[in-house]
Amino acid sequence: MKKKSSVSDSSKENDQDFYRKDISIIATAFLMKFIGLWIANSKEEQRRRNLALFYTVIAIIFGVWVQTRDFYYSWPDFNNCAYVGCNILSLCLILVKLFILIIHRREFIDLILYTYKNFWHLNYDINEKLLLANCKKICIMCMVILNSCGLLTVISYILTPIIANIGKNQSDRIHPFNMRLDLPILTVSPYYEIVFVLQVLSLYYVAVCYISFDYLLCLINLHVTTQFRILQYRLMNIGGADTINRQTFKSCIRQHQTYIWYCCRLEDIFTLVALGHVLIFSLLICLLGYQTFLADSLTRRFTFTFHLGGSLNLLFLFTYSCDGLIQESVNIGTAVYKCPWTTLPMNRAGRNVRKDLQLIIIRSRRPCCLTAGGFFPISLATFTRVLSTGMSYFTLIRQSI
Q1: Which residues contact 144 (CB under 8 A, 6 or more apart)?
Q2: Distance between CA atoms of 297 and 389, rounded to whole angstroms?
Q3: What is the widest separation between alpha-carbon atoms in the chain?
Q4: pLDDT band, very low/low/confident/very high, at 61 (cuts 50, 70, 90)
Q5: Per-position DSSP letters for 199-258, written without gaps between them
Q6: Which among 30, 186, 190, 201 is least surrounded, fewest beta carbons within 10 Å?
Q7: CA angle in degrees (0–180, nearest 5) for 158-162-163
């Protein structure tokens, strides 16, 4: 019993060391705790998560209401409607992801717990740790890119009204977002500054929600992709030059089955998220492109340049991580073929192992993937299709104006 407890304690220490060393996992956990959708270790933590989640839902719905009123009063000015439409689509995209994850909240938390216990640990050999280190670098790079784009977009939204208010009277000052309320007091100090700060804080909150869901999915996809690469390495080294280690081979089969099950659970939770992501992004990229290249205001062009760049990076990283999942799950068959199966004896045991190898190759021809509502798999081809659709909408708008 003492030996078992010492082994479990050492594994927990290894897991904690992995969490502390991986900045991408720490940042993702912080952002998801900020929203309210993460693991809770006690009832008090769960209560705080529920309060944060309730505030997130109310804040996003309130933002949709404010922008919808602004859209109503901006009609039929197309420039202002396109500007507000970008904000509404961004908020609607957050709401879609938020409500879907709330519906699948229990499955989502169980998936994160399983990932912590089975993927994010240090019980790997040297070559497998090199694969994990490469995955860690990619995750950190994705985190830096997305956070930089999000921060620059928030800063540009803040600078737009500050630049526009230069030389104006107090009664003519504008906020980052139009409230459309007949209250002259909102432009008078200190109420103007209070509303301005509240809108900036809300904008930062929206930016966190906009980035965190997709970054979490990218993080999970990249780590599952790395697990498939580790499995390929183990399959190619399941024995010596003359034979195959049966126990190691059985362990690899169980791991392959586990990864397939994991991808199915990932598909059940995130398939509608991916569908909403693809559908809304086609319209969003169109409107962002219009604001970037054809808007009358230079400050709006400046703002939406960062917004468009961040959205394109987000879409690319999302499709890139899903594409890696497809490619590496298919490569399992190639790894099986490279193992020393030709040296197996021609007896009953050797024939059974060959049949098992054939079954793995046949199963690997059906890739693990994340689909958009079950209609089509998400891959890098999806990125080009969404861009093509968005550009088509942009061309129609440009010709009709």
Answers
A1: none
A2: 26
A3: 93
A4: confident
A5: HHHHHHHHHHHHHHHHHHHHHHHHHHHHHHHHHHHHHHTSS-SS---HHHHHHHHHHHHH
A6: 190
A7: 115
